[in-house]
Q: What sequence folds into this?
């Protein structure tokens, strides 16, 4: 485990070269902030306001960094409450009311309260219940039409979500035509209190975010809803990224690279996007106060982010950071797409077993079983390859030469390595102590043994005696007849685990049920009568416990 901090430090240095040092990132942001302020009066005279968004505005200069813009008509003010209409002067200002009743969280309809002098806004109005509402579809399509006709450079533009996409210097660029609000949406008010309770962010940053307001972009919660608009917090998200320390920023950048180069590699229709990655980082920073965001812990932080993403894909939920009720996976990551995406993330059964172990220790037995069942199903699929090598040494040449498509379909299995400094689950605490006593820094358990053990424990905690007994029988069969997946050097601990588990089926007592572990098992002397010989299994024995 001591090599992880050194490796993390090395990765941190490499990312500083690839993504940028703290000074480089700060200068990039300041230049873009100044450029935006200088251009703002000129843009208003031309009839629009704009701001950069996306990766470049956040401070990245990766090869895949996108060029995103947001544009909106000046003088058009979105209000969240009708009482806010008194803050504006009509007809100098066009007032638009957000109608969120009976809308999915994070979405709204826009009612035009006062006349607009913008021809596209007027063209997009639809009469409903004697009131004028702005159609998101008409607004988006009309802006695309206007963009195409404005310059031959934009002639090939096309709609992509709420944006108009065009190609600029061999890269795609997005421009979102939208409307702005200088208030804060009612649905996002709990976010303010959450930030103060969790200690991220400072009051200065929170106040700055609230003053900046939000935008509403022309896209509905479903493709066929032509009147809905989505609440966008792009300006607030930019300030959140600015408030990250450099290790957090680099972890975010590493995650973006991993998404592009591994998860979505050669995928023309990727399911997961960088916005999900950013949301994952935000939630982790806010909720995991115990996580140390430092260069020597960079890889551990990345792994925590990745585990959270896996968990979200598995349960089909990606809560918006500002309005958690808005599940951003609701339409895109469901059904077979969700199952396929989950099966593609990491591909290592052993890592998923750690996640299942964590959920078991957190008393989330049903969730733990879900992960175990998913992995068991993957192992049983005939079209899935299995790569196993004891003590975690994989055939690197084989994996390097293997096409990515085959890699993603290959289940990698490696031994479960438990370090004695950490108690993973209470049921293995004594085994870890004995490993330490015998000057062994780690306790190594074959992955399929751990899989069966966790099945047994979870079923027992849920008082499912039948399935608990069946899992024990499966473990016993595995040890007797599967010498490939339970090597000779691992059979001692494997039989010891099996010997512990009959307590569940015989008297339904929990493993090592003493509240305080006062005594450790003594290493018993082997009696010849206790030895069992098998041509395939090698010498194995069952330990009698005091």
A:
């Amino acid at each position: 485990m001591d090599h992880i901090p050194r490796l993390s430090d090395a990765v941190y240095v490499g990312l500083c070269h690839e993504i940028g040092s703290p000074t480089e990132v700060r200068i990039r942001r300041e230049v873009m902030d100044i450029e935006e302020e200088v251009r703002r009066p000129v843009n208003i005279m031309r009839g629009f306001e704009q701001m950069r968004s996306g990766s470049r505005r956040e401070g990245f200069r990766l090869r895949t960094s996108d060029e995103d813009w947001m544009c909106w008509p000046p003088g058009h003010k979105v209000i969240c409450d009708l009482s806010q209409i008194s803050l504006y002067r009509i007809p100098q200002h066009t007032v638009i009311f957000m109608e969120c009743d009976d809308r999915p969280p994070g979405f709204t309809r826009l009612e035009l309260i006062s006349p607009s002098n913008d021809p596209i806004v007027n063209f997009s109005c639809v009469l409903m219940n004697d009131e004028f509402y702005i159609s998101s579809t008409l607004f988006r399509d009309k802006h695309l039409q206007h963009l195409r006709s404005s310059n031959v450079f934009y002639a090939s533009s096309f709609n992509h979500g709420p944006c108009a996409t065009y190609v600029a210097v061999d890269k795609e660029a997005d421009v979102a035509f939208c409307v702005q609000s200088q208030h804060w949406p009612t649905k996002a008010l709990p976010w303010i209190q959450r930030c103060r309770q969790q200690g991220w962010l400072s009051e200065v940053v929170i106040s700055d975010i609230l003053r900046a307001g939000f935008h509403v972009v022309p896209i509905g919660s479903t493709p066929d809803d032509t009147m809905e608009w989505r609440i966008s917090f792009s300006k607030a998200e930019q300030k959140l990224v600015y408030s990250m320390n450099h290790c957090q920023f680099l972890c975010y950048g590493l995650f973006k690279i991993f998404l592009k180069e591994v998860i979505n590699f050669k995928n023309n229709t990727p399911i997961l996007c960088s916005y999900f990655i950013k949301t994952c980082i935000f939630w982790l920073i806010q909720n995991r106060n115990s996580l140390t965001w430092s260069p020597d812990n960079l890889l551990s932080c990345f792994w925590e982010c990745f585990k959270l993403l896996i968990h979200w894909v598995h349960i089909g939920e990606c809560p918006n950071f500002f309005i958690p009720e808005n599940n951003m996976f609701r339409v895109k990551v469901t059904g077979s797409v969700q199952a396929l995406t989950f099966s593609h993330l990491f591909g290592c059964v052993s890592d998923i077993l750690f996640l299942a172990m964590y959920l078991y220790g957190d008393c989330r037995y049903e969730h733990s079983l879900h992960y175990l069942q998913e992995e068991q199903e993957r192992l049983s699929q005939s079209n899935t390859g299995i790569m196993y090598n004891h003590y975690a040494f994989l055939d690197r040449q084989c994996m390097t030469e293997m096409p990515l498509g085959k890699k993603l379909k290959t289940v990698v299995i490696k031994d479960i390595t438990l370090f004695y400094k950490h108690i993973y689950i209470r049921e293995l605490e004594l085994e870890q102590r004995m490993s330490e006593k015998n000057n062994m820094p780690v306790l190594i358990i074959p992955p399929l043994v751990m899989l069966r053990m966790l099945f047994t424990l979870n079923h027992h905690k849920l008082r499912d005696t039948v399935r608990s007994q069946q899992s024990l029988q499966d473990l016993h069969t595995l040890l007797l007849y599967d010498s490939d997946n339970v090597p000779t050097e691992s059979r001692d601990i494997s039989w010891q685990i099996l010997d512990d588990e009959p307590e569940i089926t015989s008297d339904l007592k929990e493993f090592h049920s003493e509240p305080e572990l006062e005594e450790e098992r003594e290493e018993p002397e082997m009696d010849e009568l206790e030895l069992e010989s098998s041509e395939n299994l090698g010498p194995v024995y069952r330990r009698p416990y005091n």
Q: What stands out?
A: Residues 382-400, 404-409, 505-546 have pLDDT under 50 and may be disordered.
